[in-house]
Amino acid sequence: METAKSSTRPFVRKPKRMYKDKWPGLLFISPFFLLFAVFGLIPMLFSFYLAFFSWNGLGPMTFTGIENFRLVLEDALFWKSLSNTFIIGVMGTLPQLIIGIFLAYALNSTLIRFRNVFRVAVFIPYVTSIVAVAVIFGVLFSNQTHGLVNSILIGLGYDAVSFTTSEWGAKIAISLMIFWRWIGYNTLIYLAGMQSIPKELYEAAKMDGASIWSELRYVVIPMLKPFIIFTVFTATIGALQVFTEPLVFLGRSLREEGITIVAYLYRDAFMNNFFGTASATAVMLFILIMVITCVNLLLTNQIGRSTWKGGPK
Length: 313
Prior knowledge:
By secondary structure, this protein is an all-alpha fold. It is built from 13 helices and two strands; from the N terminus they run H-E-E-H-H-H-H-H-H-H-H-H-H-H-H.
């Protein structure tokens, strides 16, 4: 009997020139990885390491095990900051995700004149300097009676509100600041998604006599699912990392009425020099973001598999 020949191909060594041709490409993309390693990966790993040590930023580091985590979990202000983060996150991000769809639909409509002007106007808050935002909202929500919002409340017969010191006043002001800054970004994302929907679908819906609500429900929103999932992910992560808005509105006092978990971390690290507990807070925040991201992923995958029943009436 003849022996069967092996069907496997013999190993062929690639010429050295093929490897040399890859070096220019690797060289061009290397700055990103170097910067990410220096300013992203290494600090993150050091933060994980520092979470198990006591350190004031200058003296020697002392290993404490999980003591930092225990101190953080026993701190009532930590739980207050976590509660504030969720409340401000929901109040500041959920409306912008919902209203952004309707704004994008209006800006995509051919019935509105000067659409480009309105598109630019909606996006301006996103590119506005945070210093300017702080000045604007400081005037709007001033604790004094001459503040714009308080003037309106007094004119309507209500008492003035101390927005920087009251429990819900601070949350409402910070949430409105977040909404105002980010509504344009999400609207632009949804607008790009609506412009990618084939025009034939819009025309078919109009021929079937679909109302605006039916067109939104059965044509626009199903086709926007990838964009909605993206904005939900980014908004959720952003809501858990809210820091700039409370800092510029409350100042370095960071009162407990509006302190968020990242502001709590900042307060521990750079105002109290407790870098160990600050790192422990950062680690717990990282775990929390990962858990919520996984839950979001499971929910969005389930929504993606579901089918929309019915049609335009």
